[in-house]
Amino acid sequence: MSDLQEAKESLSENLQLVISLLEKHEPRERLAHDQDIGELQKKLDALHPADVAHILEALPLEDRLNLWELVKADRDGDILLEVSDSVRQSLIADMDSHELLAAAEQLDTDELADLAPDLPKDVLQDLMDSLDAQNRERLQSTLSYPEDAVGAHMDFDIVTIREDITLEVALRYLRRLGNLPELTDKLFVVDRNDILQGVLPLKRMVVNDLEASVADVMATDAVVFHPEDITDAAAQAFERYDLVTAPVVDTNNKLVGRVTVDAVMDFIRDESESDMLSLAGLREEEDFFASIWKSVQNRWAWLAVNLVTALVASRVIGLFEGSIAKIVALAALMPIVAGIGGNSGNQTITMIVRGLALGQISSHNMQSLIKKELGVSLLNGLFWGGVLGLIAYALYRNYQLSLVMMTAITLNLLLAAIMGVMIPLGMTKFGRDPAVGSSVLITAVTDSGGFFIFLGLATIFLFK
Predict the structure, then answer these.
(1) What is the pLDDT of residues 233-282, one digit of tens each?
(2) Which residues pair with residue 161 across a beta bridge?
């Protein structure tokens, strides 16, 4: 069994154990038993903050808050960082100002930046007042950047050295520090004004002569970022160059922080989850155990759009009521035309959204891209249209209906290809997230378009 599978099973067992302990008593008295409380606390203390966060997310609100009371105060901050945004809000709402301030004070500056947007204003102000001048300035700087900027994900826990020392001196310096920041794979080489000169990978320090100078061994062509850079682009660079950490510099090349692979991975995960939710028409991440009203508010917007598009599709069908009344087979076949068009359009949109995210689509390759998608749709349309045309003929013994079926599927797939390219590009041009609602829009177009094409062709060729 793989380590990953074992970890999943262990986490599932821990969740079931917690649930069984919580269920021993009535809701208001579940934690009245000292023995149960002791067992729960012992289990929670032994778990990683991420595992505790997983358990909290899997519990209904009342059980979640009961369990939250048993978490040791010195772990509150770490666990709040691990839970989802929606669950974090429910936990913060149950904490008083002193508890929140104590939890926040346990965290580093870059971690505070992740938690700060969810804190009440008075708690955030008290937290700012409690920080020293340097950390206050760092936190304010991080919070000033938008969520998709590298500056919002910077880490200030860095180790710097000068280029005019030897590797032996650098190594003695590291030993005096006692420990290194997590994910330290390189040291940042700066001058007396903190201007970045290069980076010294730790592996070079190990394999080179200790009498060599840092200047002779360091890399001067390191990948660097600016706080204003888009984190998506940074994530691509981390993947392309197999980075663990990278320096962040200002416009004067002064070192202001670093960005680490775990921050990038967290961003990618959040973006991926956000895109998934957006494609489904959800406005934000939803707590599984949120109130009914809050869940309704989260879901209603695109349902309203879907209602409008469904009404449009129904009116298109209404235009051809006479044709459907004469040949009932049209009613049975038209959903196939719309459905296969919607699936094809969603495939195209997925490719385009991915290409936009990776920065691989621009004006210079747009014409080639559209031609390629039209070619794919034409071949798919002719093949699958032919297959469904044969099936239609076998069912209804009407070759004209079969030809109409094949033609309608081909034309709807071509329509799906064009709109599958144009919808996300259009949304991007107007500054909107191309993932948000694209599937709803392409389904509306292929449904209405598919009905109109199929019923229109049927009316023209079957009722001469």
Answers:
(1) 999 899 999 999 999 999 999 999 999 999 999 888 887 776 666 655 56
(2) 189
Q: Identity (one letter) of the amino acid at 284?
A: E
Cβ neighbours for 308, distance < 8 A, ≥ 6 positions apart? none
Q: What does the pLDDT look like over 421-440, one tens digit per residue?
A: 998 888 888 877 777 777 78
Structural domains in the chain plus CATH codes:
3-150 (1.25.60.10), 160-260 (3.10.580.10), 292-462 (1.10.357.20)
Integer Cα distance of 22 and 16 in angstroms: 10
Contact in structure between 54 and 83 (CB atoms under 8 Å): no
- How buried is 420 (Cβ within 10 angstroms: 0-12 exposed, 13-18 middle, 19+ buried)? buried
pTM of the model: 0.69
User: Dihedral of CA 149/279/119/431: which sign?
Assistant: positive
| Spatial separation of the C-alpha atoms in residues 155 and 139, rounded to whole Å | 10
Sheet holding 196-201, edge to edge: 160-161, 186-190, 196-201
Q: Sign of torsion, CA 240 246 247 250? A: positive
